[in-house]
Design a protein that fits this description.
The complex is a heterodimer of chains A (110) and B (115).
Chain A: E1 9-13, E2 18-23, E3 32-38, E4 45-50, E5 55-56, E6 61-64, E7 70-75, E8 84-91, E9 104-109
Parallel strand pairs in A: 1-9
Antiparallel strand pairs in A: 2-7, 3-4, 3-8, 5-6, 6-7, 8-9
Chain B: E1 4-7, E2 10-13, E3 19-25, E4 31-37, E5 43-49, E6 54-56, E7 64-70, E8 73-78, E9 87-94, E10 105-106, E11 110-114
Classes of the chains: A mainly beta (110), B mainly beta (115).
Amino acid sequence: DAKTTQPNSMESNEEEPVHLPCNHSTISGTDYIHWYRQLPSQGPEYVIHGLTSNVNNRMASLAIAEDRKSSTLILHRATLRDAAVYYCILLSGSARQLTFGSGTQLTVLP
Amino acid sequence: DTAVSQTPKYLVTQMGNDKSIKCEQNLGHDTMYWYKQDSKKFLKIMFSYNNKELIINETVPNRFSPKSPDKAHLNLHINSLELGDSAVYFCASSRGVEGWAYEQYFGPGTRLTVT
């Protein structure tokens, strides 16, 4: 019942930018787009979130399509510590059946 | 200073038992959550709770019940444990009663094994 679609895996070279895509074609007007990442044996870690406008923080940037049906998480310079599973999820007050999707396993090559 | 903590980290128990997992957050957040991550790594929300409203994922069996003694704590009680309950359970919190508008902070997880 996940409402987002992400590639299963991606690779990046260290110190290069990474663009992680997410499709959410059934997004509603009240859904916030959240990104989290999870390292093995750890709890998910917040990365970034937004509603309509592009967002930047110290970890990443979030580019949201004009129709909001897709978004892209941008890591400007990948490091080995960025290797994790990245989850794109939609959150709103009606999130009564929220499931994170399978996420994208990001591998960062030295 | 741990922001969201859970105890125990590991819990091994037999079918039919009743167990609890505790969660505490020291962030002053208004909304807390419980998630279940199964063996395929899918992470599913079970409950979200603030001082006004408990939102229950309708797929969660009523053997699971959250209990909040105060704003900083949201414990998870599980009755009549079944093999399928084996998973990692994560507690999380966020500020605001509209928790979905804010970032969530997760605990380290509790690995529950039912034998």
